[in-house]
Amino acid sequence: MLTPPQKQQRVECSRIFLDLCMEDKDVVLARIVPGDETWVHHYEPESKQDSMQWQKKGTPPPKKFKVAQSAGIIMETVFGDSEGILLINYKDKGDSITGNYYASILEQFQEAIKEKRWGKSTKGILLLHDKAPVHECHVAMAAMQKVGFEILPHQTYFQT
């Protein structure tokens, strides 16, 4: 159940978004760029040559099971808009995402926007991302100001 302050936060975020949309909804929606991190498992499939076995004539082939172990896991940071993906960045397991790293990603993201959506940067970017500590640290916030991104406020996820 949401507490009164949590409910109030949701109302405020909704009010800000509605006020933005009062001007021109389509322009506001075109400015929104979500960004998020996720873990991605990758696999190395066995080739047909690797899976071949010698068999005596007339014996049935061995049964194959579709169990595949993950070859590894990586962290993927993705930014995209209504037209598609703008930037994907990968980081190996064990490497942590710091404020400096996220600031460098924001700079790469700004360059990707200039390359792929050159008109979008003139309208202003509304960055929509979660409230992870690395997104809200001083280094990341300074980088957002430097590249000229606005943060679209949204409610924090609350588990019930």
TrEMBL record:
It comes from the Eukaryota. It holds the Pfam family Transposase_1. InterPro entries: RNaseH_sf, Transposase-MT_Hybrid, Transposase_1. GO terms for molecular function: nucleic acid binding. This is Uncharacterized protein. The lineage of its organism: Eukaryota, Metazoa, Ecdysozoa, Arthropoda, Hexapoda.
